[in-house]
């Protein structure tokens, strides 16, 4: 079986901007801030995309970071910057903002 090709990005962040849910909690502005700050920090291999509903409305706004599969609920620009620095740049996790995982 052939190997998978290398990924285009080191991290891919999906931000729910569904109306009536995460969008009402300010996710569009937070996504825009994450994009601009990632660029300012020189994180060229980080991609931020907006999406429709991701099914975790009660935690909104919701950001999902892949390939790790870590989901966050940042509430403001400072939280976004902490995710950028701690997770996307340094490889750590911002535990206080992480959503609970599914039960196995």
From TrEMBL:
Alphabetical list of SUPFAM superfamilies matching this protein: Thioredoxin-like (SSF52833)
Molecular-function GO term, any one: iron-sulfur cluster binding
Keyword NAD recorded: no
This protein's record includes keyword Transmembrane: no
Coiled coil: none
Cofactor(s) this protein cannot do without: FMN
Domain of life: Bacteria
Keywords, sorted A to Z: Iron, Iron-sulfur, Metal-binding
Gene3D superfamilies: Glutaredoxin
InterPro entries to which the protein is assigned, alphabetical: Thioredoxin-like_sf (IPR036249)
Protein name per Swiss-Prot or TrEMBL: (2Fe-2S) ferredoxin domain-containing protein
């Amino acid at each position: 079986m052939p190997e998978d090709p290398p990924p285009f990005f080191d991290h891919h962040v999906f931000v729910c901007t569904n109306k009536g849910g995460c969008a009402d909690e300010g996710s569009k502005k937070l996504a825009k801030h994450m994009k601009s700050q990632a660029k300012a920090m020189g994180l060229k291999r980080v991609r931020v995309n907006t999406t429709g509903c991701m099914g975790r409305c009660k935690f909104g706004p919701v950001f999902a970071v892949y390939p790790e599969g870590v989901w966050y609920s940042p509430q403001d620009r400072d939280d976004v910057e902490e995710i950028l620095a701690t997770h996307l740049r340094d490889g750590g996790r911002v535990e206080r903002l992480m959503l609970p995982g599914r039960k196995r």
